[in-house]
UniProtKB/TrEMBL annotation:
One of its GO terms (molecular function) is metal ion binding. Residues 32-101, 111-169 form the Peptidase M50 domain. InterPro entries: Peptidase_M50. This is Sporulation factor SpoIVFB. The chain crosses the membrane at residues 16-41, 83-102, 122-142, 154-175. It comes from the Bacteria. The lineage of its organism: Bacteria, Bacillati, Bacillota, Bacilli, Bacillales. It is a multi-pass membrane protein. It comes from Paraliobacillus ryukyuensis. One of its GO terms (biological process) is proteolysis.
Length: 283
């Protein structure tokens, strides 16, 4: 089937299918439609903002509390674009609030449904802003950490913070004898996602380096890196900041090379064990 070029493939997460089945069985299909619409509007905020910046979207996955937009451009576009695209989702909830207000005033939906939608709308809004990966708050956290730490450390710190906060929330829920199984499942799913992200963090790091090399752009800010000659290239890359350009100096203060030469040696010449001293000898 031919798909409209503008619209990305939309994947429905099992939790959403599950709630559809539950809503059919319990006769709450209207509630489901409201949830689905809110989630869809949230995600369309991210999507439209991403399109405005010309990002390539691989797919959009919708789940109960929002969605995850998979793109080829995370971490290789300016951080401010990422911030705007990430915020464009939660901002939708303010629009949805006024939409519900209009529906309420026109008495299109029953008061109980409107009340349900209001509650769900603010719940998703607040939930998505928790500083936990893969929620929007987690992405904002990552963007903030990327200014303060090198990419590799920022990424690892984001996962550690996400897991810590999730465990604290689960602890508080347990302490208060919270009984909503779906909330436990939700946080279990988040922990699972963080586990996967942790496992593939080296791949994420390599993708960041490859994109940095392929889509090379001069950066306004420069941060010299001073390293011993015996430093392996992969360890030098571990000190790369997202929005900084790096010249590499040896400990004696002489500039020896730049990041492009190191990346070329690593990826094009496939010298995975090479050191800074090897790059100096070649150039
Ligand atoms: Zn979102």
């Amino acid at each position: 089937m031919k798909r409209l070029k503008f619209i990305p493939p939309i994947v429905i997460h099992p939790t959403l299918w599950f709630s559809l089945v539950v809503s059919i069985l319990t006769g709450t299909i209207m509630e489901f439609i409201l949830v689905f619409s809110i989630v869809l509007l949230h995600e369309s905020g991210h999507f439209v903002a991403a399109k405005c910046f010309g990002w390539k979207i691989r797919k959009v996955m919708l789940w109960m509390f929002g969605g995850v937009m998979e793109t080829e451009n995370y971490s290789n576009r300016p951080i401010y674009q990422e911030l705007i695209i990430t915020l464009a989702g939660p901002i939708q909830h303010i629009g949805i609030f006024f939409l519900l207000y209009g529906l309420d005033a026109s008495a299109t939906l029953s008061p109980s449904l409107i009340q349900f939608a209001y509650t769900y709308n603010w719940t998703i809004f607040i939930f998505n802003l928790l500083p936990i990966f893969p929620l929007d708050g987690g992405k904002l956290l990552f963007a903030g950490l990327s200014y303060l730490r090198p990419f590799r450390q920022a990424h690892a710190s984001m996962i550690v913070i996400s897991v810590t906060i999730t465990v604290i929330i689960l602890g508080i829920m347990f302490y208060h004898q919270e009984t909503a199984l779906s909330t436990y499942l939700l946080f279990a799913f988040i922990l699972w996602e963080n586990r996967l992200e942790w496992k593939q963090r080296f791949y994420t790091f390599i993708r960041f380096l490859l994109n940095r090399q392929l889509l090379w752009k001069k950066k306004k800010r420069r941060l010299p890196l001073i390293v011993p000659a015996s430093t392996k290239l992969i360890d030098v890359f571990g000190q790369f900041y997202r929005e900084q350009q790096h010249d590499i100096y040896l400990k004696n203060g002489m500039k020896v090379t730049d990041e492009q030469a190191c990346l070329y040696m690593y990826f094009n010449l496939k010298q995975y064990q090479a050191t800074v001293a090897d790059v100096c000898r070649k150039s």
